[in-house]
Amino acid sequence: MDEIFGIPAPLLFGQLLLGLINGAFYAMLSLGLAVIFGLLNIINFTHGAQFMMGAFVAWMLLNWLGLGYWWALLLAPLIVGLSGVIIERTMISRLYKLDHLYGLLLTFGIGLIIEGVFRNYFGSSGLPYRPPAELQGGWDLGFMFMPVYRFWVVVFSLVVCLATWLMIEKTRLGAYLRAATENAALVQAFGVNVPRLITLTYGFGVALAALAGVLAAPIYSVNPQMGTNLIIIVFAVVVIGGMGSILGSVLTGFGLGVVEGLTRVFWPEASATVIFVIMAIVLVTRPAGLFGRA
Amino acid sequence: MASETTAGAIASPRDEIGFWGFSKPQLAALAVLIAFIAVAPYFLYPVFLMKLLCFALFACAFNLLIGYVGLLSFGHAAYFGMGGYIAGHTAKVWGLTPELAVLAGAAFACVQGWIFGWIAIRRQGIYFAMITLALAQMVYFFCLQAPFTGGEDGIQAIPRGSLFGVISLEPDMTMYWFVAAVFLAGFLFIHRIIHSPYGQVLKAIRENEPRATSLGYRTDDYKLVAFILSATISGVAGGVKSLVFGIATLTDVFWAMSGEAVLMTLVGGIGTVFGPVVGAAVIVTMQNYLAEMGAWVTVIQGVIFVIIVLAFRRGIVGEIANLLRVKL
């Protein structure tokens, strides 16, 4: 089992793993976007910047306060989520009565501000962030080398996505959320505090992005631009999957990550564009997206 | 999107359509604009003015979609940048004269707009914005790798050449008049589109698409043609810009460039005829003076986005028009 389709097995499985990891980030980010879009009806363009903030907060916690990875995994989503709550309360909430495109423009502007501020203070080059001692090293599986941290990222993000799905589908809060997505006015008439639900939802979506950022910090270098290019790919993922279904966006995220990884093996030049090409094909054949409702 | 923000709803006797679809206040504004273009190069640096005019035309092309069809394209850099690359390549490698090089860039942007528009108009609103952005990013990655674009270096030392093979455009002033002529032609062309029967249908689609459909209009065809026109004019703007500076780079196909088109139009006033020109002037001037501040320019642009969306959705020209109770 040294070669598969003429490709050395370690290379193939290595890229497959890399694809799964990228897929994990696509899944977590598109999940957050979908949750926010469901209730707020805006596309959160700040999502990439908030992903980047998650990574930076992890770096700051370690280098300024001496709090390690596990603390960051807990605190960074809370801190960034709180900043999201403030953004929603002070700015986004003023736009609900207007065309949804204004929400997109506003969050795009906020994203520019955040990215610019971080670039001023930290420069464009990346900052290193090491994975915790428990997750360093790797296993030799015979056909490939499996770094422990990468394995952890895939497993942990799957757990997070599953937990989010359970929370939305199986809990009372999730039921409120789904009901408010369908008809906010009616849910409010039943005595649910919808504005607060909206704020919490935005904070939760942002926290998911920040959590993905913390996971990404040891893999990619922590730099101010790390979120922006990623988020455009995630937009394509969201268009492909459609934002109607939670599990749909998770599946699409992981699936496209794997496709991208395989493309990197068989046709490296196309790996940067393959997701966009898939998006175009899906739009032509199934305009509502794979899991979307028209 | 523009309906609630522009002065479009305000009708007054002064809005009577006069010469070439321009109302009297618009004619006055047009006279000011032409006078400015004619006089400015004697007081201001011509290269700066040429940059301004290129971006003004780019923003006008973008405004044709957002202001009159209600489509927010977040990927107009793809047409602007590719127009620049094709014009630069044909002028430098094929040795085409400048007007043919720009036409080649425009033709490419036209075909590209046709394909991308055909894909993107399947979805509306936010999805449309995301799709156009994603397609533009695909073009960016293509330009990063394609051999003829020169990757990170871009196409350098593009000759300005001689107009029709006769008039050398190397002197800045001669080039300036060429750019000014292209800008005015594009500007008037867009104005003509908007005030044609076709443009009226576009506005009807913006206001209420299902009703336009029920009246028998194939709205998708109308939207696609508007998209192609907008992409083509963006390609012209990009082609001229690459000739002015003699360089075509990745900056012009990057998503940030698409964001700038949005910002200029937003600052000037979505759905106003003169807004994108004023917005482009404001943003290009700002970038010129703040160039040394590095990343703070990004922060300032973000702040402008936030302030305009929260407080001045009409933009500069829209606010003035509202104050004077006219359409501009």
TrEMBL record, chain A:
- Name where it mostly resides: membrane
Q: Which residues cross the membrane?
A: 12-35, 42-62, 68-88, 100-122, 149-168, 200-220, 232-259, 265-284
Which domain of life, per UniProt?
Bacteria
Query: Localized where?
Result: Cell membrane
UniProtKB keywords: Amino-acid transport, Cell membrane, Membrane, Transmembrane, Transmembrane helix, Transport
**Topology with respect to the bilayer:** Multi-pass membrane protein
This protein's GO cellular component annotations are: plasma membrane
Q: Which GO terms describe its biological process?
A: amino acid transport
Q: Per its UniProt record, what InterPro entries does this chain match?
A: ABC_transp_permease, BCAA_transport_permease
Question: Record's Pfam families?
Answer: BPD_transp_2
Q: GO MF terms on file?
A: transmembrane transporter activity
Family of the protein in this entry = Belongs to the binding-protein-dependent transport system permease family. LivHM subfamily.
Give the protein name, as stated in the record: Branched-chain amino acid transport system permease protein
What does the record give as the organism's lineage? Bacteria, Pseudomonadati, Pseudomonadota, Alphaproteobacteria, Acetobacterales
From TrEMBL, chain B:
> Which membrane topology term applies here?
Multi-pass membrane protein
Q: Highest taxon of the source?
A: Bacteria
User: CDD domains of this UniProt entry?
Assistant: TM_PBP1_LivM_like
Can you cite an annotated GO cellular component? plasma membrane
Q: Name one GO molecular function term.
A: branched-chain amino acid transmembrane transporter activity
Q: What is its main location?
A: membrane
Q: Which UniProt keywords apply?
A: Cell membrane, Membrane, Transmembrane, Transmembrane helix
Pfam families, A to Z: BPD_transp_2 (PF02653)
The record ties this protein, via InterPro entries, to: ABC_transp_permease, LivM-like
Localization: Cell membrane
Ranges annotated as spanning the membrane: 27-45, 52-80, 100-119, 126-148, 175-194, 224-250, 262-286, 293-312
This protein is called Branched-chain amino acid transport system permease protein
Q: Which organism is it from?
A: Neoroseomonas alkaliterrae
